[in-house]
Structures are given as C-alpha cells and as structure tokens.
Specification:
Layout: H1 6-22, E1 53-58, E2 67-73, E3 76-82, H2 95-98, H3 101-104, E4 114-116, E5 125-127, H4 130-146, E6 153-157, H5 162-175, E7 180-181, H6 189-199, E8 204-206, E9 214-217, H7 228-242, E10 246-250, H8 255-258, E11 262-265, H9 271-284, H10 306-317, H11 322-329, H12 333-345, E12 350-353, H13 355-358, H14 363-376, E13 386-388, H15 429-435, E14 443-447, H16 451-454, H17 458-466, E15 473-478, E16 490-493, E17 502-504, E18 514-516, H18 525-530
Parallel strand pairs: 6-7, 6-14, 9-10, 9-12, 10-11, 14-15, 15-16
Antiparallel strand pairs: 1-2, 2-3, 4-5, 4-16, 8-13, 17-18
Helix pairs in contact: 6-14, 9-10, 9-11, 9-12, 9-14, 11-12, 15-17
InterPro entries: Mopterin_OxRdtase, Mopterin_OxRdtase_4Fe-4S_dom, Prok_Mopterin_Oxidored, TAT_signal, TAT_signal_bac_arc
GO molecular function, one term: metal ion binding
Domain 4Fe-4S Mo/W bis-MGD-type: 52-108
Length: 536
C-alpha cells in the first residue's frame, strides 16, 4: 500500500473534486455536473434538479435574528441558510438557525385550541374551535374592563421583538392594562442596566474589523452571544488575518476560551474585581487616555476638571490592586498586569462581557466596571472599540389607548431586592402573585414563556400556576405543550416565526428594519382562520 503523504493527499483531493463536479461515480439523480457553481441565494432539488422557491426572511431561533433564505419544494420547507446579500451576516447562518425547519414539522406541535376539563396538571383536555376559544377568553377579560379594573388582566411574554412586540403592547394599551411581564431579568437585564446608567442605551457591539486587541469576560462568542454570527466571524477573521490577540476570562474552558490566544481561568463572579484591578494598573502607570474624560462623571462635582476626575478614579480603585484581585479571583497578579498593559497600549481594543459576568449578584456593577475600563482607554464608541449597536428606525402604528390605564405593581419584584429593576424582576412575578400584597391578576396570559422551567425554584412556580385561588384563569399561547402549559385553563396554538409576517428591529448597520416574510401558511385551517388567512 502506498504511503499517504502531502503530495498524495492533494492528488486524492483533486480526484475527489473531479468526481463531485462531473458526477462520475455518483447516483443518476445527483446534481453534480448539471448545475453550474454560482453564488448563494438559489437552491436545487437533488431529485428533480428543479430550482426551489427562495423566500427571504429573518431567523428567530435566538435574539440575533439573522437575515436568511428559506427554500420551499412542493409546498414544504426543506432548507434554511444565510441570506447572501446580508452585510451583517455575510451570508452565514448558524446550525441552530438552520435547524429552524424542525419547529414547523415538530411532531408534537399544538395545532388546535384546547380547554382544560380536568384539574390543572392532570393533562385532561378537550379540543375546541377557535370561535369557542376566543369567546371563552373574551368572557373572562371583558368584565374586568367593564368594571374599571383592566389591570387584573396580565400578559407575560418571553421574546417579543419588532412588530410582534408592538402589536402586543398596542393590544394591552387599547384594553387599558399595564400589567405586562417580560423575561429580561433572567436573560441579560443586569447588562442593560449597567450600560444604560453610563451611556443611556444598551446592546453594545464591537468593531472587530479595526481592533488590535480583545479581552473577553464571560462570553462564549464563538458559540452563542447576542449578535453571534455577525460578530464572531469578524473576530475570527481579525485573529487569523491580523493576528489580533484574544484573552478570555472564564470559569470554564468554553469553545471561545479554547480558541483564544489565552484562556485565563477565574473564580465565579470575580470578573468585575479583575476589571477594576486592570483599571488600577492603567491609572497608576499613566496608561490611560484623557479623550473620554469630558463625557464622564466620576465624582459628585458636575464641573470637575480632568485632573480631578483622574484623581477620583485612582481613589476609587486604590484598594483593587492586582495582588488583592489575585487572592479573590485566582488570576495571577502578573497576568492581570500583562493583559491590562496590552489592552491600554493597543491603538484600539475591544472588551466583551456577557452572562458569565453579569448574571451574578452585582452583575450590573460588573458591567459598569467593563464600561469604565473601556472609557479610560478611549475604547468606548470609537473605531476599533466597544460601540453601541445601531438599531432599526421602524415605528409601528398604534391604536387609540383606553381611557383607563392601570397596572398591578407585581412585575418589579419585592421592594428593596433589586436596586434598579428597569427591566423588571420576572423571576419574582409568580412569588409576587402568591404574596398578594400588591394584588393578583384574575386572568394571566403568557406567550413564548415557560415560567415553570426557566426561573428557578420550579416546584414553587408549578404550585402557584396550579392554584386556582391565586390565578383564577390562565391562558398559554404556544406551539408545544410545555411545563407551564399543563397548568393553563386554555391553550391557544401559535404559529412559528416561519409562518407569520413580521418586522425585526435587531442591530442594523443601515438602520433599516428586516421584513420577515412568511415562508409557509400555518399547518391547519384552524390556525389560519385565527389570523384571518386562508388555509392554502
């Protein structure tokens, strides 16, 4: 047998490519050799060789919401891939996005309304018509508005973005209830609070195309992160083509840590301490830049000079020495100094932070430390640094608001337990209902949310959802029968994101919203009738 070497391997690869292109040695139905190689945006059936129908839309498998193409053959969705003309994704779509096909054809999808006929949690249901389902829901919420207590109707959602969010809020405004719950506090609320308190907005991004140095705290950007596909490929390109270093602080060897220039293990929740010790090094060694000081308020004095601001920052971080940080975080002081100097001396640098940093006690303050570290090196909203994401400027039309506008004070958590609940405390919504001091909803409707599974203390959540004395009537809008739906009184089947029209308002370099085209009609006449559509 001939020994395999590099030359033989290349010959074998060339021969294999010839087979693929010419179709020699493949089945008669293969496309190879019959279709000319061309850019993306088109797809062909390997069986009939006919071009499939291509429909542009946007993904909804995560909050990134990448532009993508759906390919339909004989009325069936067969493939999802990145939109070739997207300047955000550059035509790419992750594996999770491509797996969105499974949502449409999931064998256990709920396809018709169901009314509970047994006790909550007994899994006893009766199939009903949409007319009966909507009449039942209307009979529960109309008396609340007629009695001047619209706030006793509560709606809680997980992920509603773009026009879907606008329609929901428009409906609740028209009804008169401000008792609206979210899920942001168990997603990335502390990160938003930390950023909003410093530059007025949230959703940071990173200019990897022009950066020279990257430090990552608690983000697994190569696997999953807000704006994942658009940013991760640019970071990889910067590392490969320009040798940009990436230092990842993480408690575990994530996929991002494994591909970094160096993985720096750190104890849980100590990211902010290490950041402040880096600030200590940069300030005391004179490596800071004055450019951003004019935008900063770091003392009670609104009119403080730059020198006074510098002194205030030094005083604030004086105790956070690298040696102190080493004792608490496990990161060697020498390593902290090395990375701090590299970060400060780079012409431009990016700092990444995410759930590994912010989803802990004092997570918002740890995000503020990340912002401070970026600001003192003039890497905040500058070329090659951490920048604010640009969103779409879409404005949805609204219906007239109801004359009575009320809301139960149950979405911001128990008093004193969250310093700045600007994005609510959703994990305490059910405990607040149980407590009852601030009132309880008589009708509780949730969508794209699974409170009995995601908030922790699942047994308590299940007990509250099961108790009719706490929640007299509940409605679940879902595509599947999940842990929370089993305790609902009424289940309304939803459509998937591939079966509805939408606009999306995610990060947009052009400031233009994505229009999500419906790829397929809903799978049954029942769902189509709900949305005023035909069943074709």
């Amino acid at each position: 047998m001939k020994k395999l070497n590099r030359r033989n391997f290349m010959k074998l690869a060339a021969a294999s490519g010839t087979v693929m292109v010419t179709g020699i040695g493949t089945s008669q139905n293969a496309l190879a050799g019959s279709i000319k190689l061309q850019p993306g945006g088109r797809d062909f059936s390997p069986t009939t060789k006919k071009e499939r129908q291509a429909i542009p839309t946007a993904c909804w498998q995560c909050v990134t919401r990448d532009a993508m193409m759906g390919y339909v053959e004989d009325g069936r969705l067969v493939k999802l891939e990145g939109h070739p003309d997207s300047i955000r994704t550059l035509g790419k779509l992750c594996a999770k996005g491509q797996a969105g096909v499974n949502q449409v054809y999931f064998p256990d999808r709920i396809l018709y309304p169901m009314k509970r006929v047994g006790k909550r949690g007994e899994h006893k249901w009766k199939r009903i018509s949409w007319d009966e389902a909507l009449d039942l829901l209307a009979s529960k919420i109309k008396p609340l508005r007629d009695a001047g207590t619209p706030e006793l109707f509560m709606y809680q959602y997980g992920r509603h973005k773009g026009s879907q969010s606008s329609i929901m809020h428009d409906f609740m405004d028209a009804f008169g209830s401000h008792t609206i719950g979210t899920h942001t506090s168990v997603c990335e609320g502390p990160k938003w609070v930390g950023q909003e308190s410093l530059w007025g907005g949230m959703y940071d991004n990173w200019d990897y195309d022009h950066t020279d140095f990257v430090v990552n705290f608690g983000s697994n950007q190569f696997e999953t992160h807000t704006n994942h596909i658009p940013t991760s490929q640019r970071l990889i390109r910067a590392m490969v083509e320009r040798n940009v270093p990436l230092y990842t602080f993480d408690v575990r060897l994530s996929n991002t840590a494994a591909k970094s220039t160096e993985w720096v293990p750190i104890k849980v929740g100590m990211d902010g301490l290490v950041m402040l010790s880096m600030v200590n090094v940069i300030m005391n060694e004179g490596l800071f830049r004055r450019d951003h000081l004019k935008y900063m308020r770091v003392s009670p004095d609104y009119h403080a000079s730059d020198d006074e601001k510098i002194a205030a920052i030094k005083k604030h971080v004086a105790k956070f020495t690298p040696e102190f940080a080493e004792k608490e975080s496990g990161v060697p002081a020498t390593k902290i100094k090395q990375i701090a100097r590299g970060y400060a001396k780079a012409k431009s640098a990016c700092l990444i932070s995410y759930r590994g940093t912010v989803m802990h006690y004092h997570g918002a303050d740890q995000e503020r430390a990340a912002m401070l570290l970026s600001a003192i090196t003039n890497n905040l909203d500058t070329k090659g640094g951490r920048v604010m994401g640009v969103g779409a400027g879409w404005k949805s039309p609204h219906s007239p608001k109801a004359k009575v506008q009320k809301g139960l004070d149950i979405v911001n958590g128990f008093p004193g337990e969250a310093a700045f609940p600007t994005h609510q405390v959703s994990q305490q919504n059910l405990p607040m209902i149980k407590d009852g001091q601030n009132g309880r909803p008589k009708v509780y409707w949730w969508s794209c949310n699974n409170m009995a599974f995601i908030n922790g203390n699942n047994k308590e959540a299940e007990a509250i959802l099961k108790d009719e004395s706490l929640i007299p009537f509940s409605v679940s809008s879902n595509i599947v029968y999940d842990e929370s739906s089993q305790y609902a009184d009424l289940i309304l089947p939803d459509v998937t994101y591939l079966e509805r029209w939408d606009t999306e308002d995610m990060v947009s370099p052009t400031g233009v919203a994505d229009r999500c085209r419906r790829i397929l009609h809903p799978p049954t006449p029942h769902q189509a009738a709900w949305r005023g559509e035909g069943s074709g």
